[in-house]
Each structure stands twice: as C-alpha cells, then as structure tokens.
Amino acid sequence: MNTATNFLNTLPKATKILLFINIGMFGLAYLMPQLNQLLALHYYESPLFMPHQLLSHLFMHGGLAHLAFNMYALVMFGSVIERTLGTKRFLLLYFFSAIGAFLLHMGIVSFELADVAADIIKTVSTDGAEAIANGKNYTDPYLGGINAKFNGAMVGASGAIMGLFAAFAFLYPNLQLQIIFIPYPIKAKYFMPIYMGIELFLGVTNFEWDNIAHFAHIGGAIFGLILMLIWKNDLEQKHLH
C-alpha cells in the first residue's frame, strides 16, 4: 500500500487525475454495461451517435488489457510530458491529440462508406443500429462489415496517448526506449515513425480480425506533432528542447 501511495504521489496532478478517471470509468462500465454503448463514440451519421460521445469515449476501454496498456503509456509518457510542458499545455496536448484521432477516424469511415448504396445505408441506419445496440450484427459479411463501420463504436484514450508519444519523441528524440518483444533499446526518434508505419499498414490492410482504430492512433500522433511544432520556438527559448 505504501509503495502504491508513494508511486501515485510522484505523478503530476493532471496525469494522476486522468489515470483515476479512466480506471473509475472502467469500473463503472463493468458494473453498468449499458454505458459501453452510450458513452462510446459512434459514426456521426449513426442514430447511436450523441455529441457527448466526443468526450466520453476517451475514458472508455474495450477490456482490461486495453486499459492497462493505455494507462501504462499515460504514466510513462504523460508524467514526463506534464513535468516538461506544464499542466495546462499537457492537457491541451492530450485533448488536441484526441480531436485529431477522432477526426481522422471519422474521415476514413466516411471515405469508406462514400460508395455504399443509399438503400444499404438506410437499412443499417435502422435495423443495423438496433442490432449493434443489442450486441449483434448481420450474418452477411458485406452487410455486417458496413454496419460495423456505420454503427460500430470507438473507445479508448489511445489517440490522446499517441499525441503524448509523438511529443515525447519530439522533445527527447535520442532517449532510448526498451520495448517489449524488442531485445535492444531503440531511440524514440526511430521508434515513433516505425510504429506509425505499422499503424498505417494495418489501417490500410484492414484485416478482418483487427478491430483497432489504427487511423485514430495516426491522427492523434499527427495532431500531437503539429502542436509541438507550433510550440517549438517557445520551447527552445525556455531550453526545453
């Protein structure tokens, strides 16, 4: 208990608050499963979409492993970034990156649905939305795929976390990271583009078994990098870069 308390006491304020909110929302969704659909982010034309989801989806996660990975990254990168930039800029970076994540995700979904026949869109916007809300989907692979895109949900802080990761690589490009499954440490400035390349490959390939919103990750990283470039001169004057 003392070790955990001491660890939490070392975390900067905003990082700690975000950690508690994410863990708390995960526990609340476990006790009230209906929150998973209500608070997850749906495609903006889906009848399941509600404006509050633009914020609430950031604090929802698809499982314990998803939560654990994001919170580990939040603590590892977020605490460093908050100490470096200060709490206000840290929070701006976090939520600005989240905006980039869902904007790119929504844009890609919109592009993928652009050529779908109007009668199919009409079908999935009614019967399909009801099926998704009840945890079901069409058995037909094509119709099921369209419905999953139109009425499916995105959850998690991953887009915001990717923005923090991009900021970390920007601020500390030569710092070596020890990544699980990679036997040798790799500098942040090399790992970041490699990781984004993998995300792009998986996003474009769109494997059936893969339900991760890879373009949301890319969008978060891009917006995080944009903000760091905007702040670049000011950071250099303050000897932070």
Reading side by side through the largest sheet, how are the strands ordered?
Answer: 1-2
Q: Radius of gyration over alpha carbons?
A: 19 Å
Shape field:
globular
Q: Within the CATH hierarchy, at the fold level, what is the topology?
A: Rhomboid-like fold
Number of domains: 1
Q: Architecture, according to CATH?
A: Up-down Bundle
Share of residues in helices: over 70%
CATH class: Mainly Alpha
Q: Low-confidence parts, pLDDT < 50 over ≥5 residues? A: none
CATH superfamily: Rhomboid-like
- How would you classify the helix and strand content by structural class? mainly alpha
Please provide the count of β strands: 4
Q: Provide a count of the helices.
A: 11
Please supply descriptive tags for the structure shown above:
241 residues, two-stranded antiparallel ribbon, Rhomboid-like fold, 70% helix, mainly alpha
